[in-house]
From TrEMBL:
PANTHER family with a match to the protein in the record: GLYOXALASE FAMILY PROTEIN, METALLOTHIOL TRANSFERASE FOSB
Lineage of source species: Bacteria, Bacillati, Actinomycetota, Actinomycetes, Geodermatophilales
Occurrences of domain VOC (ranges): 8-123, 141-259
CDD domains: BphC5-RrK37_N_like
Pfam families: Glyoxalase
Protein name: Oxidoreductase
């Protein structure tokens, strides 16, 4: 197996036409903090995270995933990984070099098998962060990102072969086969998951809250604010984490979660879960039923940024 050279998920960068509406949502409703803003570009930090930012928001005519960013231990690992990808025929967007984003660092970008832009970086400056206090219902960190794929088997194989992702669990449907793959790069059950979909797009981005009480308070705060909830609150079986899924103004699904499982990678064996079992979707039985409405919302709009690198 390829040596794992990435350490963790850093941030997800989104481009949206309704930039100001989105910025208002992520700061005033979702609970992120805007920093390092420029015209049509804002870096959004989670107060409890050492990452410089967990979401980058960019104004664009096209709605797309601009970038998914992962961390590496050091510049040597960044160089090694870039060399391996190039030798394997993966298309690099940029060669390793100094980053011009907040916190600096050293990194490079490449296209994955379906054309998403991915960044790997090291030596990014640590943000001055703080402990989230009891009862404070704002995100602590970016937990994971789930992508929709028209070729999920190929996408899984790409991330396993080139980035040493490991499979934690799989969801299947008796009539449709395997539907979602939970992939890890460290002891967290998943940093990314891949969902079967007619087209590549963002399925959802998930944000960890301090604990169960804060997660419920956050869910309630968004409901009171009139943010559209599509699924939850509940607790998944795969990963064991809680979930409340909401739509941002652009129609991207965002999740509040907590208590994502940490596993022993040396002894873990992946499960194959039947998604039609109600306990698989929601162990508590409190969430609305997973139905065609919820699934369709999570399909999102087709990503318009495939094999087109973001301008920044």
């Amino acid at each position: 197996m390829t040596e794992r050279l990435i350490t963790h998920l850093r941030h997800v960068d989104l481009a949206v036409p309704d930039y100001q509406t989105q910025l208002d949502f992520y700061t005033n409703a979702w609970g992120l903090k805007a920093e390092h803003s420029d015209t049509g570009l804002t870096f959004l930090a989670a107060e409890g995270s050492p990452e410089q930012y967990v979401v980058r928001l960019r104004q664009s005519a096209d709605k797309r995933i601009d970038l998914i960013s992962f961390g590496a231990k050091d510049a040597a690992d960044v160089d090694t990984l870039a060399g391996q990808l190039a030798r394997d025929g993966v298309r690099l967007v940029s060669e390793p070099g100094d980053l011009q984003t907040p916190g600096g660092g050293y990194g490079f970008r490449f296209f994955d098998n379906e054309g998403r832009t991915v960044e790997v970086s090291s030596d990014v400056g640590v943000r001055q962060h703080r402990a989230i206090e009891e009862g404070e219902s704002i995100p602590v960190r970016l937990s994971h990102v789930v992508i929709n794929s028209a070729d999920p088997e190929g996408t899984r194989a790409f991330y396993e072969k080139h980035l040493a992702f490991a499979l934690s669990d799989t969801l299947m449907h008796p009539h449709m086969g395997e539907m979602m793959w939970f992939m890890r790069v460290n002891s967290w059950h998943h940093s990314m998951a891949i969902a079967r979909c007619p087209h590549p797009s963002l399925h959802h981005a998930s944000f960890e809250l301090r604990g169960l009480d804060e997660y419920m308070r956050g869910t309630g705060r968004l409901l009171r604010a009139g943010v559209e909830k599509i699924w939850g609150p509940g607790r998944h079986l795969a990963g064991g984490n809680t979930f409340s899924y909401f739509l941002d103004p652009s129609g991207n699904t965002m999740e509040y979660t907590t208590e994502l499982e940490e596993i022993d990678e040396d002894t873990w064996h992946p499960h194959l879960y039947d998604s039609t079992n109600p306990d698989v979707a929601d162990q508590w039985g409190t969430a609305n039923q997973m139905n065609e409405f919820v699934a369709t919302k999570s399909f999102n709009d087709p990503d318009k940024g495939l094999f087109v690198a973001p301008p920044v």
